[in-house]
Amino acid sequence: MSSARREAGLLPARPDPARARERVLVGLALPALLLLGVVFVWPLLRLLSMSVADGSLAQFEKATLDELYVAVLWDSMEIAALVTVICLALAYPVAAWLVQAGRIGFLLGMFFLLLPFWTSVLVRTYAWMVLLGRNGVVNRTLRDWGWIEFPLPLLHNLTGVLIGIVHVMLPYMVFPIYAALLRIDPDLQRAAEGLGAPAWRSFLRIILPLSLPGVFAGCALVFVITLGFFITPALLGGGHVMMIAMLIEQQVREFLDWPFAAALATVLLAATLVIYAALSRLTGGQGHAAR
Amino acid sequence: MPRARRRGSAGRIALTVLAGLVFAFLMLPLLVVFPISVSSASYLQFPPPGFSWQWFQRYLDDPVWIEATIRSFKVAVLCTLLSMGLGVPLSFALVRSRLRAMRIADRLVAAPIIVPNIVISIAIYSLFARMQLIGEWYGIAVAHTILALPFVVILVSAGLRTFDEAQEQAAMGLGASWPVAVWRITLPQLRPSLISAAFLAFVTSFDELVIAMFLSGASMTLPKKMFDNIMLEIDPTIAAVSVLQILLATFCLGLATLFGRGLVPGAGRN
Amino acid sequence: MDLTVRGAVKRFGAVTALAGVDLDVAEGELLTILGPSGSGKTTLLKVVAGFEVPDEGSVQLGSVDVTLAPPRARDVGMVFQNYALFPHLTVAQNVAFPLEMRRVPKAERQSRVAEALALVELSGYEARLPRQLSGGQQQRVALARSIVFNPRLLLLDEPFGALDRKLREAMQLEVRRLQRRLKLTTLFITHDQEEALILSDRIAVMNAGRLEQVGTPSEVYARPATRFVADFVGESNLFDGIAGPDATAEVPGLGRLFLAAQAGTPGARVTLLLRPEALRIGGAADPLANRAAGQVVETVFLGLSVKLRIQPEGGPELLVRLPLRPSEPPPALEGEIVTVGFAPEDVHVIRQA
Description:
A: mainly alpha, C: alpha+beta, five-stranded antiparallel beta sheet
């Protein structure tokens, strides 16, 4: 009865703590969302709109039909795919080892993974230049040991770029796989082996399928981040390897061609989001970075 | 049974060898800069012909290097303060709100991890150029906050999700207002996550190059100065700076490991 | 009255958690809200504590209307289900927390914390952290923390659920002793009817957002107001029947039963309650007015008593509980045919709405 009177405006509405709480929470989120809006969403939309500023799709035609630019886009995809495959091959054993490692081994392994992760990409890229150059540490050592006569071409080509990017992306692949393996009940494998399955078989039938969400999450992350790489290919490629991010930078810095840079950025962004969404779907919706 | 065990241990040794090789690959570039940084040669030479502190000396004596270093510190500190000040309250909202809009916000915050840095960089560059913010150190800090925010939110949210909210209710039942309950009861228990998040935000900003390349203009940050040096002349000063950066990263990682938590999913098991 | 709830209604979307609750708790009284999960007892507790505001109705503490007041303005001490001790604070800091929030001077704070810890027999544990305590000790800290500021009302939300049986019984008696000694007005929430019978001055049985009956433990046990109460509190034999003339009732399968008083107008539908311990078998049943013959389907030995399930031919199964002395042989064997009987005054009549 009193609620009817309240609805009729005769009684003041009672405060609802649940609603008040939501209001406070929205208030807490607001400053950060505002910053994201002003410094992330708004500039992105502005940039995307520049690509069609002249009212036509001419810039997109140039970006997606001109052989020169299409080649760069394909090269970038190819590099991203190669990096993903190499990272997966290297990261899976590491993740598997970490899961079964003792306390000290685990801490040491984490240190080896996290220290490079926390060290500047620039420092690492520089170090690879020192290592891989014509007279670099690797070639010198191999020559001193008499294994090679002429220096191997490791720098200023695809090999160097791949080595550099794999080094940066490896932790991004290890952590999701490690997390997935950790969630698997160790009793499962023991049970399988207890039932007479050989180790490799219980791995193929039980461990591998159960770790697939982690594998897909890692692959999605590595592929997509590699696609937008800039520093490493710029320094280790020595001008012989061109990726789409470098192309965008060139358009902005050298040619001041903002509409075309914007079109390329739009293509890169769209490719990134589509591929990530597709790969995340495979993980069953848990595609977020480190969750 | 013994056969199975033997095979198991052989597989284990193979696994350990493989993992060891990958760890060696990961550590190699970090270790190689140490000998070069104390080389007596005047150009890049390996192995170094002799020992000398000259490259560290040159770094310390060069005002351009020092200014860039100080600028990077200022940027990273402001970025840390901003991303913590905004990210921690945001995490409360993302974890606790039941509004559907918050799930969209959750995606939005994580987006800068996926969106290519080059795209973020030129987008902000174009806007900041318009606002005449190029060359301002705080402009870089604000832009870096976009990159650091996802890390802060991921770490703090993970901590918050394991926190028993009944404790906050208990504190309020015992006479605390909500802000006091959060300050006295919730945040102290989130401290490990907060420490890890702060260090990660700092390092993210301190090492960042692509955004800084576009926004720093004539007043360079440390990564920008290093990039220019690598492009122009590879002299071992870079090695000395690299060594200092690796030591800083080790220091931050060490502190975050000692007092922090949740850097890696499942790492809390020890 | 120390706590007065009037016409409390609370809805969550389409679910009505409280459908108009009236409740009075007298000063120094321990009143238990007893109900199954989903009955609305936790919502009632939250409304009293101030974590929820009722859609309708009011909550009064003493003469003050606190319906809209936040928890911190209510002067209510609460012990949570899992204690909700602050793990990063010591025992003393935990207990001092409500005093600190009330800006009690430091010297007084210390003496009052010491006093409260002495009351729960935890003196000397001041510097420990909660995780260094046993479950029972944690419970005592939670109790000390909720009474240290002399609250007007103490709320206990299923506080014994996490303890094992022996410790639970010890803690129940200790809480009862403390509550009596300090004359604390207490509202106790539980789904455990045994616990409610042991601890309470009065019990309010809750079901589907309503209070079905409020009364002393013996009233609620012996004279339940509704079928739900009869079923939920204690073990029972419940029969549906029709009231007859001259203090009788007709129950299908048992025939005409003699009652102590007229059950209602002849022809009215009634429910009859018969507690298992009111039944007798064999020779002991012979002098009783109501008798039936049945086969013993099952006997369960319970230590001090034995429980029998007896199936009269064509009638409802009867649950019988007989006291047992250690030297005695079991009163009946499974498969045996026995006579069951009960006195008219042991049949409680629940009138159906």
